Amino acid sequence: MTKQTLSFQAEVAQLLHLVTHSLYSNKEIFLRELISNASDACDKLRFEAINDGGLYENDTELKVKVTFDKDAKTLTITDNGIGMSTQEAIDHLGTIAKSGTKDFVSKLSGDQKADSQLIGQFGVGFYSGFIVADKITVESRRAGMKSEEGVRWISGGAGDFEVENITRPQRGTSVTLHLREDSMDYASAWKVKGIINKYSDHISLPIMMEKEEWKDGELINPSDEQGGRQPGAMVKTGEWETVNKANAIWARAKKDITQDEYHEFYKQISHDFEAPLAYTHNRVEGSTEYTQLLYIPGKAPFDLYNREKSAGVKLYVKRVFIMDDAEALLPTYLRFVKGVVDSSDLPLNVSRELLQESRDVKAIREGCTKRVLGMLEDLAKNDKLPEATTSAEGVTDVVSEEDKLDAAANAGKYTKFYNEFGAVLKEGLGEDYANKDRLAKLLRFASSTTDAVSVSFADYKARMKEGQEAIYYITADNAAAAKNSPQLEVFKKKGIEVLLMTDRVDEWALNYLQDFDGTPLQSVAKGAVDLGKLQDETEKKAAEEAAEAFKPLLAKLKEALKDKAEDVRVTTRLVDSPACLVVQDHGMSTQLARMLKQAGQAAPDVKPVLEVNAEHALVKKLDGSVHFNDLAHILFDQALLAEGGLPADPAAYVKRVNALLV
Ligand code: ADP
Ligand code: MG
């Protein structure tokens, strides 16, 4: 094959432009990315060699070498991992195979700060080399292929790249960065070692660099030992040293690992720039033995709501990397968790299918789920700063400075978590029956009395009115619609708090939660309002009388609206509004039906019940009006509008209203 020039996939070209323009504040991540690729390549070789030992080609000591050349202005990362064939180099270094790439690129705004956040999450990987290099040369040969089947890939990081066939006896890959003028400081052992210590200590392979030593410069006048010398310099000695700890972090003892190391490992596996909110590291012993190191990120990825998206937990078996994104290790609703599980019980050649059926994996999954919920419970518990407590004897609790700092560091973390991931957590009510009660305690909502999404079911219960028998909630498209919904009127009047549920998954999720800690959950938009003991006798009597007196009018309304409303009845839930829509006790809400339709899914035609406020002037006017039919339809359509819906025939609605206005 001769040299050929190929174009990058359009998304890659776009990404490259961004990489070089917006990642400046985090330049040094390129080394972490390239070393992580080298390490992945060694992992892959080890994995493939389980079935074909010949791939090692008698060289089983997997390692990464980092070298630099000040004169040539290059930095090179070399591994003896799996390597790439020509086609693989074209495919892997010219396109982005990750699912959701297009989706990701479409989210880029051109605002550098926002984009660099996004890009960080997406993981620019190999292309990050172009932050510091204006040209990258990759030479590679795949394990098991002939020396003559090597490949050289060169690109300046603009629109295209060149590939050609080369002879390369050694297996694996070397990536040479031709450093930009402003990035020359990366051609220094001191600088490179520092970055490796920061990011790559836990990489389980040795990362090697050539030792240097100081050499004095030549004498300017060779006959004069005391005379001046040329400047001295560090020179390479030909000896190699391992510059990282070369020990998988999760296999080390907890007490020997600093918080910084835990955080750096998280950044490495998650591509996040920020520290995680929490982590847990445990060695689990018993019938199934494994190590778990799990993290809760502080920021949602751009594709969080894609349930098909890969999970964030890597599976290792006895320190050998098996697979990324092992979705069997955690339920889908915990897909935001990042980390590693290393099992000593699973076979090395375990497949995804096998994982689904393995009893060990089931135990690991349960164990990991418990740990994650435990972390969330801790975050929730420490979300607010503790108030100084004074005992009955007047003794004020003394809080140590250390505890105060601790509390300050943890405060607000759960709120942050919940804002990012709360909606996903709710999916768990339907998905994880066994942990339903623990999950319910972790949920937070806004309410008719609290704007912030901060009210737990327990908070709500503690504030319930004397005689109140249910936890009341309303679902709506957004907070404003929920808060101003006519259905809330009587609750406001009586000072009863109502939880506002405005996430898309709320209605679905609440199907799985009938009660909290023995108190039933009741939608204020479903069934007849039964305020039970909250209603006094005179109110009950007035309602009954109104219903009786309105019977003939209700019959007429029902006839006029027979295509739209299931039933028409007098209500006690309204104060200021003339009418509202409710659904039967176990029916699907009109809001959910609307959402399903918008999503192109089949939804039953829900015919709501129209409830009218007998006290309202408009309703009183209905009887005997010559416009009865129009008013009836307007009443219905307005009730629909009030809950964020649209009249089935908006033009007809406008016409009717205008006719009355004129
Ligand atoms: P990711 O590592 O997330 O897959 P990268 O952009 O870092 O994305 O790398 C793209 C792909 O290029 C890798 O998936 C791999 O197939 C290939 N690759 C990169 N570096 C190497 C290497 N040192 N050895 C073998 N393959 C490599
Ligand atoms: Mg990578």
User: Which ions, cofactors or small ligands are bound in this entry?
Assistant: adenosine-5'-diphosphate, magnesium ion
Count of discrete domains? 3
Residues in helices, as a percent range: 25-40%
Counting H and I runs of at least 4 residues, what is the number of helices?
Answer: 22
- Could you tell me the mean pLDDT? 87
CATH class of the largest domain: Alpha Beta
* CATH fold annotation of the largest domain: Heat Shock Protein 90
Structure write-up:
By secondary structure, the protein is of the alpha+beta class. It has 3 domains: 4-221 and 229-242, Histidine kinase-like ATPase, C-terminal domain (Heat Shock Protein 90, 2-Layer Sandwich), CATH 3.30.565; 249-381, Ribosomal Protein S5, domain 2 (2-Layer Sandwich), CATH 3.30.230; 444-661, Rossmann fold (3-Layer(aba) Sandwich), CATH 3.40.50. Helix content is 35%, strand content 19%. The protein has a 9-stranded mixed β-sheet with strand order 1-6-5-4-7-3-2-8-9, with helices on one face. Strands 10-11-14-12-13 form a 5-stranded mixed β-sheet, sandwiched between helices. A 5-stranded mixed β-sheet has the order 15-17-16-19-18. The chain is elongated. It binds adenosine-5'-diphosphate and magnesium ion. Magnesium ion is lined by residues 33, 36-37, 125.
